[in-house]
Design a protein that fits this description.
Elements: E1 7-12, E2 15-20, E3 23-28, E4 33-36, E5 50-60, E6 65-75, E7 83-91, E8 98-100, E9 107-109, E10 114-116, E11 119-126, E12 131-137, E13 142-147, E14 159-164, E15 167-172, H1 176-179, E16 181-187, E17 193-199, E18 214-219, E19 224-229, E20 237-242, E21 247-252
Length: 283
């Protein structure tokens, strides 16, 4: 996919969503089609403020319909209690257009989203410095707020937002390198959280390098959590943490050019699922 460029890649059911110059782009590796969604005319005044544009991809399994959700955030760099946000939805179909969705809870997303059972989930914090999980029902196009189980914004680099057993979960691995401990918080029904404490086998502690920060990048279809070094190192590797078996394995990634290890750019590691989408991209 040379020349695609883009940032904040999201993969769902064989489709790739990424951002170029603020616009959302969809790429289908199966059909090799790529479309760029129209620009959005935001209503928020952003002069003198920090602002960001984030996109989420969702799928409604009942209507077999894909939708792109845009979160536009404007905030003051000196006073984070002044947060404004707008929310827009685009139905991925011929003649689709952006539609603004009213939601009276301004917030800043802190993690890429998950789409589970027709609902998009993502971590965020509000102007009151509350850590929350935002859910968006793809079919009804309604937002909802769920209180986070812990202060997640203070530990952005030490946790991952993953799917576990068909539910959104927080993988908190601050103590993994020191003593092999992980906390897993799973979002149950009615917005309640359950906690599961994991302890790595002592014989596998040597696989975790104490000098290299790790970040949660993805999960496999078998439920393994993928942890990767935050920066490019040689040899490059990933760690696969099997939550069910409480087992850790190390996998070396070969083929990265030598000059890549001298790059200061962040390396993003994404897994493609087995779904091959034959959807014809046209807007």
């Amino acid at each position: 996919m040379q020349g695609m460029g883009g940032l904040h890649m999201v993969i769902l059911r064989g489709l790739i969503l990424y951002k170029v110059c603020g616009k959302a782009c969809i790429y289908n590796p199966t059909t090799r089609q790529s479309v760029t969604l129209p620009a959005i005319k935001f209503n928020i005044f952003v002069q003198g403020n920090d602002h960001s544009v984030l996109y989420f991809l969702g799928h409604d399994p009942v209507l077999d319909q894909y939708k792109v959700v845009c979160n536009f955030v404007s905030s003051s760099s000196q006073d984070l209690d002044m947060i404004n946000s707008e929310h827009w939805v685009f139905v991925l179909e011929v003649g689709g257009s952006w539609k603004r969705i009213e939601f009276d809870q301004p917030h800043i997303p802190t993690r890429p989203g998950l789409c589970i059972g027709g609902v998009i989930y993502y971590l965020a914090f509000t102007s009151m410095f509350e850590d929350i999980v935002v859910s968006f029902d793809v079919r009804s196009e309604e937002f909802n707020i769920i209180q986070a189980p812990l202060v997640v914004s203070a530990y952005v680099g030490s946790l991952g937002f993953i799917e576990y057993g068909g539910k959104p979960a927080i993988f908190y691995h601050t103590s993994l390198k020191e003593n092999g401990l992980v906390d897993l918080w799973v979002l149950e029904n009615a917005g309640n959280w359950s906690r599961k404490a994991l302890s790595l086998q002592p014989s596998q502690l040597h696989l975790v390098d104490n000098d290299i920060p790790l970040t949660v990048e993805d999960t496999t279809q078998n439920g393994e959590v993928i942890l990767a070094p935050l920066s490019l190192i040689s040899p490059y590797y990933i760690l696969c943490y099997d939550i069910q078996k409480n087992d850790l394995r190390k996998v070396e990634i070969k083929g990265v050019p030598d000059h890549g290890f001298n790059s200061s750019h962040h390396f993003s590691f994404k897994l493609m699922d087995k779904n091959e989408s034959i959807i014809h991209l046209e807007t």
